[in-house]
Structures are given as structure tokens and as C-alpha cells.
Amino acid sequence: MTTVLYSRVSTKDQTLEHQRIQAEAAGFRIDLEIADHGVSGVSTRLAERPEGKRLFDILRAGDTLVVRWVDRLGRNYNDVSDAIREFMRRGVIVRTVINNMTFDGATTDPIQMAVRDALIAFMAATAQAQAEATKEARRNGIEYAKRPDAPEKKYLGRKPSFTRQQYDTVCSMLDMSSGVSAIAEVTGLTRQTIYRIKHDREGAEAALASWAA
């Protein structure tokens, strides 16, 4: 039985190594790492990605697929839920680093199956909702930075102490009601930085957009 870590990053600010370190810190022993770089989880289905499609070829019954969170599989409700259910149908166990969720097809109890499927649907919906919220925040931040009266036009301010990947992870974990201490452990950010993002996501997004520009 093989444990495979699948990682995905879509921007230059994100790193694949960060996802592996998170997985190992959470206690996962990784046998094989497969990663897609520069691939959007919104517009590209898992089976259509250069490395993502390999998962469907190499994973066998009894293997474990590890992802930081379900949004690494996709940012679309149908894509995420379909991918997880297909892996379960093949006997593959899907586990997440964040919140340590486990999805498998072992149970035959109808109640447990209903709870499992409802949780998959919820997490898939959350992945899409987070993607849409991030996209909206990014658009607002860029528009704010373009305003003639925006402070960034005169002074960019202090460079953000967090990357795009860390920002996205903080937002995802906040949306899942994760505690600040848990978020700090996963992202490596200080509690103060996490609180700043928590209380002013749009401002944090605007800072990232300004410095990216």
C-alpha cells in the first residue's frame, strides 16, 4: 500500500515544498509525491492536469491519497466531489492534512454513508465558495490599488509578511472554524498576522495585490 501526496500550486507566490512540509509535520509518511505547478483548480479538472491525471493511473485499492485540503483536488463543487467519489470507488483512501479528514468506501452502513457523502458535498461546496470569495477579494484589492486616491499610489506600505499561499490557507482554515493556534502551526505565521488577516481580509488582499503589481 502506497501513500501518495498530491500537491498543486497556481501562482509564483506558492510553493510545493510547503505542502509537503505540512503533510510531514502532521505525521504523514509519504512514499510518493506528485505535483502540478501553475495549474488553476478553478478552470482545470484534476483528470485534465499533467500530473493530476497520473493519480487515476497509479492509485490502487488500499492506497492513500493525501492532500493539504480538498481544494488541491479542485475549486469546483462537481469536480471535487466526483474525484473523491471515484477514488473511493476504486478503494483509495483520501485524507486531508488540514482537519485530518478521511474519506473511504469501506463502510456499508447507510447512515454512515449518508454522513460521509454529506461531508464530501459540504467540503466540495466550501472549496468552490472559498475560490469565489478569494477571486472577489482579489478583484476588489486590485481595483482599490488602481484608484487615484489609493494610499498605495504614494506609498505601498510595509510588504506583507505572508505569501499568497499562506493567505489562502488562513482564509480556508478560518472558513472551517479552525483555531488561530492550529492555523499558525500549519502556515508558520504569527498569531498577530493571522488576526490581522481575520479582521481585514480585504485589506490583506489589497496589500498582496499592490506589491504584486
Description of the molecule:
The protein is built from 8 helices and 5 strands. By secondary structure, it is α/β, with parallel strands linked by helices. The protein folds into 2 domains: 3-108, Resolvase, N-terminal catalytic domain (Rossmann fold, 3-Layer(aba) Sandwich), CATH 3.40.50; 120-212, no CATH class. It has a 5-stranded mixed sheet with strand order 2-1-3-4-5, with helices on both faces. The longest helix has 37 residues, at 110-146. The protein is elongated, with a radius of gyration of 18 Å.
Q: Please, what is the average pLDDT?
A: 83
**Biggest beta sheet summary:** 5 strands, mixed
Per DSSP, the total helix count is 8
Sequence of strands across the biggest β-sheet:
2-1-3-4-5
Tally of DSSP β-strands: 5
- The structural class is alpha/beta
Indicate the radius of gyration in whole angstroms: 18 Å
CATH architecture of the largest domain: 3-Layer(aba) Sandwich
Helix content class: 40-55%
The CATH homologous superfamily of the largest domain corresponds to Resolvase, N-terminal catalytic domain
Strand content: 5-15%
- Which regions contain 5 or more consecutive residues with pLDDT less than 50? none
Form type: elongated
Q: Could you tell me how far the N terminus lies from the C terminus, measured between alpha carbons in angstroms?
A: 46 Å
Which fold name fills CATH's third level, the topology of the largest domain?
A: Rossmann fold
| Oligomer designation | single chain
Count of domain modules:
2
CATH C-level class of the largest domain is: Alpha Beta
State the order of secondary-structure elements, H for helix, E for strand: EHEHEHEEHHHHH
